[in-house]
Design brief:
GO molecular function, one term: 3'(2'),5'-bisphosphate nucleotidase activity
Shape: globular
Enzyme class: hydrolase
Number of domains: 2
Radius of gyration: 20 Å
Low-confidence stretches: none
Largest sheet: 6 strands, parallel
Bound molecules: guanosine-5'-monophosphate, manganese (II) ion
Organism: Pedobacter alpinus
Number of helices: 14
Mean pLDDT: 97
CATH topology of the largest domain: inorganic pyrophosphatase (n-terminal core)
Number of strands: 12
Helix content: 40-55%
Distance between the termini: 43 Å
CATH architecture of the largest domain: Alpha-Beta Complex
InterPro entries: DDH_dom, DHH_sf, DHHA1_dom, Oligoribo/pAp-PDE_c-di-AMP_PDE
Strand content: 15-25%
CATH class of the largest domain: Alpha Beta
Keywords: Hydrolase
Length: 336
């Protein structure tokens, strides 16, 4: 581990920096990465954002998005960048398995590993961490890191602010989750002061759907929703064929699970989707129900109490049955 002063001394000279984030980056992952990128370039560093995989089109407008390198498309270049970096910023994840094969590259790299994150149970691969599980988004921690740890609030320009606003907005469900504090709203106010156009960001992220995405949503709600009143649980399941039929792209299944959670009385909502190589689960819960416990115990995953995910190598049908079979174990908590 190194202390903040050592990191500041390192950052006082131009460095080679890699910023990476979790596989299938969401708004917080990309907003945090490009937010930090747009800050660090002002300090004269040589910075690259390396994403382990592709990410949704509704995030591809973020300032300096064309500078992002996707590992699966440019493996050799990504590996060289990671190996040669003086500092590797790891944002919005805390276990190297979340960045797929890039994890081994980061593990063996000689650069200082800085983890900025808000998830539970860090693995401990980092040399410096700015970590707080009470933060609603990693973007909130990036703001704090730039403004308070590095005393550079004046460098939070329109580009930085736009990225960080996107991260905070998406991870907080548009400022509605319990970890949205008065302090977060103060941060958001300063991001708007710095030039973030809140209305435009909402529009670009949320009102940018394809026709297929909307029809897919209608299909899920009409045909694929099951409600288990005896467990206050709602489930939506989507097969590989459904994904192909509606030509669903990366990120377009995001948010579908929230419709299941919007039913009155539902405490747990699950979205199970059959991907090419595995079955992926997204769980959301209301109140104290620990969605992350189910993901951790049964589906090699984890996450936050109210938003968690996991996966399985088993068949789609078996995973659905397994999920249903788990519910009685949690009946008391679900019916409270
Ligand atoms: P989503 O359902 O949007 O994929 O994920 C919701 C949250 O669950 C993410 O923010 C992340 O914290 C967590 N999560 C999703 N998938 C995984 C996983 O495979 N492993 C772990 N540890 N956490 C996950
Ligand atoms: Mn996040």
């Amino acid at each position: 581990m190194i202390d903040l002063n050592t990191l500041k001394e390192k950052l006082a000279q131009p460095c080679k920096i890699v910023i990476t984030t979790h596989h299938k980056p969401d708004g917080d992952a990309m907003g945090s990465s490009l937010g930090l990128y747009n800050y660090l370039i002002q300090k004269g560093h040589y910075v690259k954002v390396v994403s382990p995989t592709d990410y949704p089109y509704f995030l591809q407008w973020l300032p300096n998005n064309p500078e992002v390198i996707i590992y699966t498309e440019k493996e050799t270049e990504s590996k060289v960048l990671v190996a040669e970096a003086d500092i590797i910023f790891c944002l919005d994840f805390n276990t190297l398995s979340r960045i797929n094969e890039l994890g081994d590259e980061v593990r063996k790299a000689g650069g200082i590993k800085v983890m900025i994150d808000h998830h539970l149970e860090p693995e401990g691969f980092d040399d410096f961490r700015h970590w707080n599980i009470n933060a609603c988004a990693t973007a909130e921690l990036i703001y704090d890191f730039i403004a308070n740890s590095l005393d550079d609030a004046t460098l939070i320009n329109k580009d930085v602010a736009t990225c960080l606003y996107t991260g905070v907005m998406t991870d907080s469900g548009s400022f509605r989750f319990p970890n949205v504090t008065a302090n977060l709203h103060r941060i958001v106010a300063s991001l708007i002061d710095a030039g973030a156009e809140n209305w435009r960001i909402h529009q670009q992220v949320y009102d940018n759907a394809t026709e297929g995405r909307l029809k897919f949503l209608g299909y899920c709600l009409s045909n694929k929703l099951e409600v288990f009143r005896e467990f206050n649980t709602a489930l939506i399941t989507v097969s590989k064929e459904d994904i192909a039929k509606f030509d669903i792209q990366t990120g377009e299944t995001e948010g579908v699970v929230n419709y299941a959670l919007s039913i009155s009385g539902i405490k747990l909502a699950a979205f199970i989707v059959e991907r090419k190589d595995k079955v992926k689960l997204s769980l959301r819960s209301i109140g104290t129900f620990p969605a992350n416990e189910i993901c951790k115990k049964y589906f090699s995953g984890g996450g936050h109490r109210n938003a968690a995910g996991g996966q399985s190598e088993d068949t789609f049908e078996n995973v659905i049955e397994q999920f249903k079979a788990i519910l009685p174990e949690y009946k008391n908590l679900l019916m409270q």
